[in-house]
Design a protein that fits this description.
Number of strands: 15
Structural class: alpha/beta
Strand content: 25-35%
Largest sheet: 7 strands, mixed
Order of helices and strands: EEEHHEEEEHHEHEHEEHEHEHEHE
């Protein structure tokens, strides 16, 4: 089968399309014929091997990548099942966290997969796992957004932001999205009551105050973001795409925690969704919103499997609209 391999850490050109053996599912696993896979900031961090602190924690490998085949978000069809595969059967369309997703076939833990909503294409379904679960945790779990609250999403046009706007709107919050000029109409169509072009206006200098701010960008200090909060407001910091080769998102989360210890506002970091947490419950919650017509994934650009390195460069540049998706032959 064809797969995108990474033998060392580095820029996008370390990703190479190669022929490899098809994996076999073990206990509790299924083999998925991948129809589409999505890219995340998580993926380019894994590609680059940064932040270095994460290497020491064992999540990505110390000197070389822990996983030779890149990718984590996938949608496809169950091809084969191992023992105790949780009721999944061959032929079932699924989406979820699938290590080695940039390949024609990949193995995944059955508990990290859910059925694909019928209303979604495979490309849309691949866009769901990490982006939608991170947004759900930021808005509902950490931000505890309630009906009638004023919510601001910084980075509303990106992979997490497009989901966050829709999830907050589904909770009957009044949503303000901050994005680039070319994403304004899209963000408004997702349910944002107000949209701010960040190049024309600094939302921290406005009179408006928000009950919850979800910051997906990391371009403003916590002190500046706090200016836009109500006295009892909550700042939720998503450090998934944070730069910094030594500490990166880990450093961002530590800074937010330190400020929270002395600030009158509540500041909470949120790590990007990965297979390590209670992902199945969150995936089921997100797909329920999708099936109810309240959330629809936004796919920006699509690339072929052979163009994965180019796609990774696009995502790493930080200006993606919605999710960037790899389609399989």
């Amino acid at each position: 089968m064809k797969a995108v391999l990474q033998e060392r850490f580095g820029p996008p050109d370390v990703l190479r399309l190669r022929d490899v053996d098809r994996p076999r599912p073990g206990g509790g696993q299924v083999l998925v014929r991948v129809r589409a896979a999505a890219l995340n900031p998580y993926d380019w961090h894994m590609m680059r091997g940064d932040p270095y602190a994460a290497r020491l924690l064992g999540g990505m490998g110390l000197r070389r990548p822990k996983h030779r085949v890149a990718g984590i978000d996938a949608a496809g069809v169950v091809e084969a099942v191992g023992a105790d595969a949780g009721g999944l059967r061959p032929g079932t369309p699924v989406l979820g966290f699938c290590t080695g997703a940039f390949a024609e076939y990949a193995c995944a833990e059955a508990e990290l997969l859910v059925r694909k909503p019928e209303r979604l294409s495979f490309e849309q379904a691949a866009a769901v796992p990490m982006g939608a679960v991170t947004a759900l945790r930021g808005i509902r779990t950490v931000g505890q957004v309630a009906a009638g609250q004023r919510v601001l999403v910084n980075g509303a046009g990106g992979g997490v932001g497009t989901f966050a706007v829709q999830i907050a709107a589904a909770l009957d919050a009044e949503v303000t999205g901050v994005c680039s000029a070319d994403s304004v109409e899209m963000v408004r169509s997702l349910g944002a009551a107000h949209v701010i072009d960040y190049a024309r206006e600094d939302f921290t200098g406005r009179l408006a105050r928000y009950d919850v701010i979800l910051d997906n960008v990391g371009n403003l200090s916590p002190s500046r973001l706090r200016r836009a909060l109500t006295p009892t407001g909550i700042l939720v910091a998503n450090g998934g795409g944070s730069p910094g080769r030594v500490f990166g998102a880990i450093g961002s989360m530590l800074r937010v925690a330190a400020v929270n210890a002395v600030a009158r506002h509540t500041l909470r970091p949120i790590a990007p969704a990965t297979p390590g947490g209670p992902a199945r419950e969150d995936l089921l919650a997100v797909t329920a919103l999708i099936e109810a017509g309240k959330v629809t994934p936004v796919v920006g650009r699509t690339y072929s499997l052979a163009e994965t390195a180019e796609a990774m460069g696009h995502v790493e540049a930080g200006h993606s609209r919605g999710k960037t998706v790899i389609t399989m032959p």
